[in-house]
Each structure stands twice: as C-alpha cells, then as structure tokens.
C-alpha cells in the first residue's frame, strides 16, 4: 500500500492515532500489537493500515533489541499520528514512548574469619566459588592431593558459612536486587588472617528511553 | 577420604591406582607412603569398565599415558600411508617459509576383548595414528570403520557382521575425522590448524558470496579424495 493511499484510508476511517505496543531484547523483537483509534477514542479495525505500519515503523523508529548482559532491552509503545500543514503535505509522525531495562552487577569484598584448621585446609585450595545459580559450590585445588574426611567436612562447613554470610552481606546497587543473583568467589587471599571473598549480585532498573 | 588429581575428585582406592600410574615415585604429600609399593597401577580395562564419568575418564587416561594404553590394548597395524605435503609458515621475522614434509598416517585395529568389552569382544575397533604438523606430538583418533567406509562409498550399504577395518585406508580414516555441512563438490580448499579446520566454499559463478544450495542439513564426513586434493595448508 502506498503512503498516499494509507493517508486517504486513515482519513476515511476518521483515525487520529495508531498505537503499537512492543517489547524487545535478547536479540529479537517480541510480539507487537497495533490498535487504531478514532476521535472518540473508539478502536477501529483495519488490517490494511496495520500491515502498512508494521512495515513502516521499523524505517522510522529505532528499537534497541540487542542485549549485552547489561542493557536487557526495552518495552513501551509507538504512537503514530498524521500531521498535515496543508492537504498536499501530510506525513505520519512516529513517537516512541519506551522504558529501557538494565541489569548490572555490583559487589563488595567480605572478610571471613578462619579457624586454624580452616586455614590449613585452604592451603590445598586455589579458589572457591558458588551462587544460587550453580547447583553446588565449586572448589578448585592447587595441586594433586589427598583430602581426608575431616578436611572434607571442614571445607563443606566453611563453604556453607561463606554462602550464608554472602547472602547477608550488604551490597549497594542501582535499582532492585534480582532474585537468586548472589554469587561469591575467593582466590584464597588472606588479609590479617581473614579470607577475602568477593560477593556479587545483579541489580535491575529501568529508565525512560524515548529516542 | 578422597584423592584430587588434576582438580578432579576420585574415591581413595581408585585415586591410589591412578596416582601409581601417574607418578613414578611416591609423592611427598601422599598420606600412606607405606602402602605405595603395594598399589597396583590402573589399567585401561579398569578405566573403561569402572569410570563412567567422562571428565574422570579423561583424567584417568592422562594418568595412564598413551604409551601404557597402547601396550595394554595390543593394537595391530593394518594400514600405513605417507603423504608428501607442502605448507607455509610465517617466521618470527614475518617472512613466509614454504616447507615440504612427509606425513604418515597409520591405521590400527584393536579387538573388543583387549578393550575389556565383554559384550562386543568379537568385534574389532580402529584408530588412526597421526602427528601434529608443528609439534610432532602423536595423536590416536578412534574411527568408526563402517561409517568411514560409507563416507567413501556413498552408494554402498554396510552390514554389522563385516569387518570394515579391512576395507578402509588410513587416509579415509583421517579424512572421516573432519565433518562439514558443506555439500560434496562445493569445497574449494581446506586449511587445518590442529583441530580447527577452515573450509573455503567454491564461489558461485553468478555472483560473489552466493552460498545457495551449497549446504546440507546433516553434516557429513570428508572423503579421502577431498583430504588428498583440497588440504592446502596446515600447521
């Protein structure tokens, strides 16, 4: 359908605006929905018009659908109106009213007191890490070694304590903390006898994005 | 009690057998040095039958070592062929150097019995032995002989009772280890850097970049003919 035919049909149906609802992210545009309104705000059906806008909207509006682990995507609507200075100079105007979604990782260093036995076992370990997303915490060992039942128990209890402490650890971040996003990691560095543990969480926030 | 080998956990008894295969002398940190001499090193049969976890199995085969593995499975060489090749290296000063070399591929058969496969003891299994072009490190790559045969004889059927090791060549076997979704007759050349194989697709006669009809849905194995003719560079 040509633009001049669309303008003609738009006028014949007494339409004043078209709203396109959308959400995108994760590298794709999700389902979109078009609604046409007349002067009294009644919905008007016209497959020809919605088909036309479904093609034209992407030429006139930029959508940010590529998420990168920080920027997640956007959702909102595009309002389409017809603006005309005179009869021969009518154009469709596309106005995006959207909200951008962001997620970012914030974290801090937690200091964990160690017993002498715990310090001894950790001499065999090069890294521990875990989080709600992983089935169980990971222990990486420095070298080939024997782990006795007692050492195994000490390690399990220490990791459980670190997990609990990391869940209580205060992290400041922008927006709301995402559920089940806490994680911890330590390269077994000590400071004044305490184990340094990096605790991270993902934070979610939104902001207006109308460009 | 457990034993950690290459950052992987093993039960104590199994771990002891692996340590004995890995170390020539009792490691200082081993907690029962008095039993070291009595520990029997792990065998390939035990690895095959007792370790189902793939990561543990990989570590265990590393402990056993290629030499011990080959000694134990008693392979029989059934084919050998040397290809005369030419490749180009970039020297540290940036200059190109073309070298000629000989690359030998050997095909071996191993009985299912030697591998400890009680249910398939009467069958033969096959591997191809080759060298890394730049490091001379040796690799053994297991191949499925009936599949190698089918890749090189597309209009033939295979039946389960036949020993296809006798019907395939070492070059067919090494070619089979590379798979592609580029259709037959559409490869211009192959470049290999270890496990990484680059395939240049033949240009369409109509326009540059056209790949229509050049791909297949199910990946296929390379043929002997493709390996011999199209491999132009490797390192």
Write up this protein:
- The complex is a heterodimer of chains A (211) and B (235).
- The longest helix of chain A is centred in the last third of the chain and has 20 residues, at 149-168.
- In chain A, strands 1, 2, 3, 4, 5, 6, 7, 8, 10, 11, 12 and 13 form a twelve-stranded antiparallel beta sheet that branches.
- In chain A, helix 3 (116-122) packs across helix 4 (149-168).
- Chain A has helices at 3-12, 47-60, 116-122, 149-168, and strands at 15-25, 28-29, 33-38, 43-44, 71-84, 90-113, 125-131, 138-141, 145-147, 176-177, 183-186, 190-191, 194-208.
- Chain A is 24% helix and 45% strand.
- Chain A has two domains: 3-103, no CATH class; 104-202, no CATH class.
- By secondary structure, chain B is of the alpha+beta class.
- Chain B folds into two domains: 2-72, no CATH class; 76-234, no CATH class.
- A four-stranded antiparallel beta sheet of chain B has the order 3-4-5-6.
- The longest helix of chain B is centred in the first third of the chain and has 11 residues, at 12-22.
- The A-B interface holds A 124, 140-141, 144-149, 152 and B 1-7, 9, 12, 15, 19, 22, 27, 29-31.
Task: Give a quick precis of the structure.
Chain A has 211 residues and is of the alpha+beta class. Chain A is 24% helix and 45% strand. Chain A is rod-shaped and about 85 Å long.
Summarize the SSE layout with pairings.
The complex is a heterodimer of chains A (211) and B (235).
Chain A: H1 3-12, E1 15-25, E2 28-29, E3 33-38, E4 43-44, H2 47-60, E5 71-84, E6 90-113, H3 116-122, E7 125-131, E8 138-141, E9 145-147, H4 149-168, E10 176-177, E11 183-186, E12 190-191, E13 194-208
Antiparallel strand pairs in A: 1-2, 1-3, 1-5, 3-4, 5-6, 6-13, 7-8, 7-11, 10-13, 11-13, 12-13
Helix pairs in contact in A: 3-4
Chain B: E1 2-5, E2 8-11, H1 12-22, H2 44-50, H3 54-64, H4 66-73, E3 76-90, E4 96-111, E5 124-131, E6 138-143, H5 145-152, H6 170-176, E7 179-182, E8 187-193, E9 196-201, E10 215-221, H7 224-230, E11 231-234
Parallel strand pairs in B: 8-11
Antiparallel strand pairs in B: 1-2, 3-4, 4-5, 5-6, 7-10, 8-9
Helix pairs in contact in B: 1-3, 6-7
